[in-house]
Amino acid sequence: MKSVRLLFLTALLMLPALSQAVEIEGVTLPDTIQLQGKSLYLNGAGIRTKFFFDIYVGGLYLEHPGSSAKAILADTGNKRVTMNILYGEVDKEKLTDGWEEGFKKNQSSKRMKSLKARLDRFNALFVTAHRGDSIVFDLLSDGSTHVSFNGSEKGVIEGSDFQQALLAVWLGKKPADSDLKKAMLGQ
Q1: Distance CA 132, CA 134 (A)
Q2: The CATH fold of domain 21-184
Q3: Using alpha carbons only, what angle is made at residue 97 by residues 96 and 101, rounded to the nearest 5 degrees?
Q4: Helices (H), the chain
Q5: For position 18, what pLDDT does the model report?
Q6: I need a surface site. Which of 76, 115, 120, 167 has the fewest CB within 10 A?
Q7: Nearest-angstrom CA–CA distance, 183 and 67
Q8: Rounded (10°) angle between helices 160-171 and 109-123
Q9: pLDDT for the residue 3
Q10: What are the residue boundaries of the structural domains of the chain, listed by start?
Q11: Other C-beta atoms lying within 10 Å of the C-beta of residue 5
């Protein structure tokens, strides 16, 4: 009985440590968020770098945390990806060029044709981002992707195929940043 009590007390003491927010480069990411009445858990977070510059802190929230990119891409539950800008200024063209490149690297030509009009609408939602700005992508179980900039919703793109293509920019076979992919997968 004493060992059971000790195990219980140890578990209670560990709970706060397990439910801590994560801080990366001054950006705090909560361990859980609420989205459409469901809890999403921080699966992983890291820094997107390019040419040795820290561009943003990216976080991935899932209803069902996991470490398999393939399983996460196939999961139809709610998801959130956050981008907290670290770099001084990321102009709109760099953002939209990045989306174009990320989609093309991870999609077939045929699939790109079916995504092109929605990718164009998606790219039209962006503006130049500055240090401290946040971009949030809520990928909902109904197949819609909600894009917010600094807490203000900018638009919605329909289609679970679009969601998978967007997530593949981070988690696909040719991610924008392989270190960030590993971090988002909690590895």
Answers
A1: 7
A2: Chalcone isomerase (3.50.70)
A3: 120
A4: 2-18, 69-74, 92-106, 109-123, 160-171, 178-184
A5: 46
A6: 120
A7: 10
A8: 90
A9: 39
A10: 21-184
A11: 9
